Amino acid sequence: MKCPFCGADDTQVIDSRVNEEGNSIRRRRRCAACDKRFTTYETAELHLPQVVKQNGSREEFSRDKLRLSFTRALHKRPVPTEYVDRAIEHIVQKILGQGEREIMARSLGEIVMQELRLMDKVAYIRFASVYRSFQDVDDFHDVIRDLDKREQENHAETPQRRSTDKAQAD
Ligand SMILES: [Zn+2]
Fold this sequence. Notes:
By secondary structure, this protein is α+β, with helices and mostly antiparallel strands. It is built from five helices and six strands, in the order E-E-E-E-E-H-H-E-H-H-H. The strands form two sheets. A three-stranded antiparallel sheet has the order 1-2-3, with no helix packed on it. Strand 2 and strand 3 form a beta hairpin. Helix 3 packs antiparallel against helix 4 and helix 4 packs across helix 5.
């Protein structure tokens, strides 16, 4: 860390102390060049990232918008609200855990799809069809085939409830 007085690169930490809450570190530093002392603070930054859309524009990450995506995909599907709450919390934790300042809308969409896939197959396909802008019926076949394959592979991963609906998009 540069000395704020003389700009020298060579400063040493002479003392580090974690504050009582444990969420910040205070460091005393000494400049080897001019011998002045100064203090720095280090805190973890937990901000939700900006969402970068396909056209390059950015918007704030919004739980409400995320919820809207779920609500639309799950329209008239027998999935309790608490499942949606849990999925949203899961997504937020995942994104915070990545620690990035930006997330591509595309990656966010894929994360939503992962959650929907575990929740309700019909909703998953509904979301995928809009999100991936399906052009024809083959695209549906592809995603349904993929879904079946994953189901067979990931029996252990299957969550609390399984929808027995045949994958029919409306
Ligand atoms: Zn200095």
